[in-house]
Amino acid sequence: MVQSFLKKHNLKQYPFHGCQFGVTELEGNPMKKGRMIATNMEELSSLLKYTCDGSHTHGQSRGTALKLAENYTFSLTDFIHCCFRSRASPAQTAQERKSLESIAVPAMSRSSSDKSKSISDKIYARVLKSAGLEKRAPAKQYDGMACFSEVP
User: Fold this and answer.
1) 14 is in which domain, residue-wise?
2) Count of the separate structural domains present in the chain
3) Beta bridge partners of 150
4) Residue from 70, 69, 20 nearest 47 by CA
5) Are residues 15 and 82 in the same domain?
6) 37 and 109 belong to one structural domain
7) Would you state the pLDDT for residue 108?
8) Entry pTM
């Protein structure tokens, strides 16, 4: 049934390992935990580069640690969001920003320090602040896509 759905919708499967995106067990050791994404987004094919290279030892994947590993790490979600952003065409992104300006600018701070920021930078800063993640900064590149991670 799953295979027929994948075939019907022309979805490709891309396996990867959790240890490559910061999944750890309770003692902090990397957990290999295999994962798979089925998609029609070619940008996600770069997940194939994130299978374990065997350069480290893994903690055991069982019990509470395995249950906690069901959650996505920031590294993984940042990677996926970078793929989404890279898929958006520059014209589409510019059009979306223009439509957001009429809605979002009145609610944005107009302090002198904000005047040099683009509307997308202001929105991104607001989203990070509301999520309690305002201390995040560009840290990784995934296939030329800037991604973000926690600042120590």
Assistant:
1) 1-87
2) 2
3) 136
4) 20
5) yes
6) no
7) 42
8) 0.58
